[in-house]
Amino acid sequence: MNQLDALRQWTTVVADTGDFKQxxxxxxxxxxxxxxxxxxxxxxxxxxxxxxxxxKKHAGKPLDEVIDRLLVRFGTEILSIIPGRVSTxxxxxxxxxxxxxxxxxxxxVALYKAEGIDTEKRxxxxxxxxxxxxxxxxxxxxxxxxxxLTLLFSFAQAVACGAAGVQLISPFVGRIYDWYKKSAxxxxxxxxxxxxxxxxxxxxxxxxxxxxxxxxxxxxMGASFRNVGQIKALAGCDLxxxxxxxxxxxxxxxxxxxxxxxxxxxxxxxxxKVSYDEAGFRFALNEDAMATEKLAExxxxxxxxxxxxxxLMQESGK
Length: 318
Hints:
Distance between the termini: 52 Å
Structural class: alpha/beta
Shape: globular
Oligomer: single chain
Radius of gyration: 19 Å
């Protein structure tokens, strides 16, 4: 049994890509996308026609709507290949606007429904884990729209997401690792900070154990991996979303893979229950320099790629 098949014994494997032609190789259950992945895909010759066709078909409509239609086009292609769910992201520029996030999420759902997709079972709307994003997700969930809270770097964000009843969270393992490695500089010890000691892995393990102990139903999906060591250290997490390159690396290895996270064992923990109002959440996030910086950086990066995607569409329409 290769490591990818071994991982599937305990964890739902998700592909982190907009390159849907690769999905038939790794055979994931679910798939996640974001503006950066879609931008990367449409710059490839085999996917550029999807952008051009979408722009031509919806000429004259607002640019933000055409972008959503492109995201849904990719999502429906992905859903024709995988058996599970696809995550489609709300524009990161709306990360601090609850009402606009709700409206954009509802529009994306409507576009999928027009394509005949059972959105309650097969779609997750991705929203940044800001206070405003979490409140938007709370409202969407109450309307039967399932959400995936992304750009999650802190325990406080995870606690607030669980309290809001969101379907799934995506803690960013690799970006947490990146911050601590950069912060340590020459003092960083890669071997001592690998596997179970990786700061990104430790963050996800704390969240996973807390959720299982307190019966929080929100699914935990580790994301943003830099190496297979991080993935192996989280075997047993509810879901893991993995790039095609790292999926291939796991599939190529027959070394034993151990069960690292155990929900039953975690349920016996003794961590106290925590809750946050808005002020408490903002202060807790502010106290976590890594999470504050990576959340802001992530929103800026996704927003910049959304702008690049808009420019490609404008050029296509000329």
